[in-house]
Amino acid sequence: MSSYQFPPIGSSADVPVCLYETNGRLIYGNEKELHEMEGNALLGVFPKIEDRLLNRLQQSLPRDNIRETFVDNQQSRFQQTLNSWATKGIDSLVDSVKNAMSGTIPYSDWLLSAGQIFNKAQIDIANVFAKSEESLYDSIMQTSSTLNWLTNWARCIAIHNSGHRIAVCQNNDCIRIFCCGSNRLPITLKHQYQQNVTDMAWKPFDRMVLAVACTHAVLIWKLDKQNWNIRPSVNCADVIEMSSLAPITQCFWDSLFDQALFVVSTSSSCLQVLDTSNGESELVGSWAGGRIRHVWISPNGGKIAVAYDGNIIRYEDSV
């Protein structure tokens, strides 16, 4: 897997690129050295992943726009209003009612005024949430292992322990799964709750389960090995709402109990342990002290290192 612009460093004309990783260190070189390395026959089974390739995979027209083009023109005004309410929210409903009733019935001026008041209140609320989102972004960028997490073309990468599958999350929260040694198109994972992806983790001993950490939720994608579509249905994902722990910045599976998923949040000093078999969860760790910034787990899963605020690192047995 080539890593153009991951991460971009320096400002000279000959920008260094990442060649490979060894023992936790990124080895850099120039683009010529990268192409020479790619010519090695041993690397022939690995996909070449670039931001240009991911951009070409983007759909030119969202499904919602396609549906509206062919469906809305066949609906009555009342049906269009109900459809706008169901798909776009209460603000779209108010606009539809205003447009339909303006100047045609008594009290239309009152409806217009009420709609303007509602829109102003909505803008004020949206501004409050925007400031809250900015705070979440700042918290994520301070702890993310990805340089410039908000704008980098690759937000996070997860490589299956078998080495046969690579999951790459773009900065639009679209996840592409590449299969090594195959020319097939990458699989695309997209979900309405898959927003602001911060981390991904393949489930051990299972080739088809991927955990995705987002700021307000955790998604467990369970893909069907017998029917592996390029665009799996959203029904393949279990959504675990975790807004109380936002922002969620990391997730990793327990190496012993394969149903346990550990979730890390910068707003907590404890780890959240999810039992993915029944949806139950439990907080473990210290209630006192600084908030968790990052967690590292040993290759055998027996030890973990937890970094807290205040430059404190605790090294202890796996919980």
Automatic annotation (TrEMBL):
Coiled coil: none annotated. GO terms for cellular component: nuclear pore. GO terms for biological process: nucleocytoplasmic transport. SMART domains: WD40. Gene3D superfamilies: YVTN repeat-like/Quinoprotein amine dehydrogenase. This is WD_REPEATS_REGION domain-containing protein. It comes from Wuchereria bancrofti.
